[in-house]
Amino acid sequence: MKTYEQVSAMLSEIIDDVPPELLDGLTGGVILSEDVKLHPESKPGKPLYIMGEYHRDMLGRTIYIYYGSFNVVYGYLDNVSFIKKLKHTFSHELRHHLEMLSGIKDLEKYDAQKLGMYNSGMDIAGFYEPPI
User: Which domains, ranges and CATH numbers included, belong to the chain?
Assistant: First the structure.
């Protein structure tokens, strides 16, 4: 299990490696939330945890990374593997931001497809992740 401070430092390093122009318009920034967040369609015995989300609301455009969910799902991993998962999630949410700015919905469609597979009982653990 990683401490909040450890994950915060890891996430800060990931963000520091991103060209600043890719963060333009991310008015709410990146928030590391302590929450463990289950997807509203999560099924008993087969939980579907939310690792991160991209929000657009009256407060602006914000990326949330869920520290609690990360520790439940990936807390056992060594630091290198944990950082890789964290970087993937951050990149996924950043892509949502960039696609929203450009009017593209490819990642949104991908997420809906993956949720549909989950709801039909398919194992989505090995489902192809789109390149970031």
Answer: 4-119 (3.30.2010.20)
